[in-house]
Amino acid sequence: MHTTKTLSLPGAAVALLVLAALHHQFTVEAAPPRNADPRRAYYMTGTTHTGSQVLTACAAGFHTASVFEIFVPSVLRYDTALGAATFDSGVGPPSGEAGVAWVRTGDSLGPHCDAWTSEVGLGAAATLNPDYESRALLQMGTHDCAAPASVWCIQD
How far apart are CA 98 and CA 127, in angstroms? Predict the structure, then answer.
């Protein structure tokens, strides 16, 4: 003959508590994202490129930055995994001579190495101003399209 047992209310409560404790003990929580920083990432390539290679220099998910996209770097996050660094960069980009890189200007008249398709002429380049007393964050200049330089890239 088959008999069944029923749990009383206190017995059921104890069983639920035991199950909840076991579930909690063996539940593995997902690790938080490696970098929860919501700011848009940017970087300066560690490789150099001529003027005709500028538009293909950035990693997937990034594009060649316009000067206006990186004009205020404090609202951005420098991607140290992708970006170039110097011995004193910390978690920021290189500056001064070490930080000169191609950048888009949005100016149809240039300088832009014939819309970044040529190694003839001049293209725009920018560096973060190492003179911390200056009000200008970026120093703009031109660079020979045939001479390789790094590229400023920003997250899509």
Answer: 8
C-alpha 45 chain-centroid distance = 11
Of 7-11, 41-45, 51-55, 124-128, the range with the lowest mean pLDDT is 7-11
Q: How far apart are CA 63 and CA 98, in angstroms?
A: 21
Contact 64, 104 (CB under 8 A): yes
Cα distances (angstroms) measured from residue 1 to each of 4, 5, 6, 7, 146 = 10, 13, 17, 20, 94
Contacts of 70 (CB under 8 A, 6+ apart): 42, 76, 103, 126, 138, 152, 154
| pLDDT over 70 at 31, yes or no | no
- The whole-number pLDDT of residue 27 equals 47
Amino acid 127 reads T
Residue with tokens 């190495």: 113
| 8 A C-beta contact, residue 69 and residue 39 | no
